[in-house]
Specification:
mainly alpha; 0% strand
Length: 308
């Protein structure tokens, strides 16, 4: 896909613009750098340093291979010493770990693979508390997991990867089923996990009985089977209907426009906000269509709150 888009990217975007477009996804950013679509010059180097101030040292060290030439030999040794303080074996298969883009720890590998027997043996032999959080990783690239680095528990990590056996084991060992599991399960796109949360009567996040946050997360991830299931089976229809009429930001149509989820676009453009969404998110063809077909009254005043 990147090879196909390369001519357009190089024609219409500068080196700096491409970096800003992709800086929040370090896995894709690395691919662009390795393909020489983005060139690390002094400006890009400075932006990587600046970005690491807000995203953490893991961001800096993920691009260590590409940026170490900007430092003298003495500073290279100092940074590599700090890098090794994360894990004495971290430089082993460093490039392969970056390519995989997942937490490299053994416990995370066991959870991802739902290796229940090996997981039980490991936590028993190492006396690992099963209530603790996942260790931060230089190699993690998933935006949702990065946002929650240092806070994601074993049971949340299991929900994210649909590891139902390990999740069941943790539940039977009195690990709390928190509302946050809904968002991890939605990202994991695992229907069995969603039913597990229902069966165990796990409350939705933010004490939101309408499951609105869950719907937004499913639409955002383009996990549309789950989004449809939430709309059909869990969503409070009265609240959703009220949102469609009165809440500019928090309704299913708004989420579809915001996250470019075209599959769930409404079949009819009769919602009063659609023209404004089309303007806000740059759907010029839809704006022209609504205007030319008298679908919108430009003189009508609609009070909206555009703040999230």
């Amino acid at each position: 896909l990147l090879n196909y888009l390369r001519p357009c990217m190089e024609q219409f975007f500068s080196n700096e613009e491409l970096f800003f477009l992709f800086r929040n996804n370090k896995w894709i950013l690395l691919l662009l750098i390795q393909k020489d679509i983005i060139i690390i010059d002094d400006f890009i180097f400075g932006q990587i340093i600046k970005t690491s101030h807000s995203k953490g040292k893991e961001y800096f060290f993920y691009f260590w291979t590409e940026i170490k030439s900007f430092y003298n030999f003495k500073n290279q040794l100092l940074f590599e010493e700090e890098l090794l303080s994360y894990d004495s074996n971290i430089l082993h298969n460093f490039e392969e770990k970056r390519k995989i883009g997942e937490n490299e720890s053994y416990i995370c590998e066991l959870i991802r693979n739902d290796s229940i027997d090996e997981f039980i043996t490991y936590v028993s032999q190492t006396n690992t508390p099963i209530s603790q959080t996942i260790k931060r990783s230089i190699f993690e690239t998933n935006p949702f997991l990065l946002k929650n680095q240092g806070k994601t528990t074993y049971i949340e990590y299991a929900a994210f990867f649909g590891s139902i056996q390990i999740l069941q084991y943790l539940r039977l060992n009195d690990i709390e089923l928190k509302p946050s599991l809904w968002l991890y399960s939605i990202h994991g796109e695992n229907a069995e996990m969603i039913h597990f949360l229902e069966q165990n009567r796990v409350s939705p996040p933010e004490n939101d009985k309408s499951y609105e946050k869950c719907l937004e997360e499913a639409i955002k991830c383009h996990h549309n089977n789950i989004a449809v299931y939430i709309q059909s089976n869990l969503l409070n229809e009265r609240i959703e209907s009220n949102n469609l009429q009165n809440n500019f930001n928090k309704n299913s149509i708004s989420y579809c426009f915001h996250y470019l989820n075209f599959e769930l676009f409404p079949e009819a453009f009769d919602n009063k906000y659609i023209f404004y969404y089309a303007c806000r998110y740059g759907f010029l063809n839809l704006v022209e269509f609504l205007y030319e077909n008298n679908e919108i009254n430009l003189k009508e005043k609609i009070k909206i709150d555009i703040q999230k």
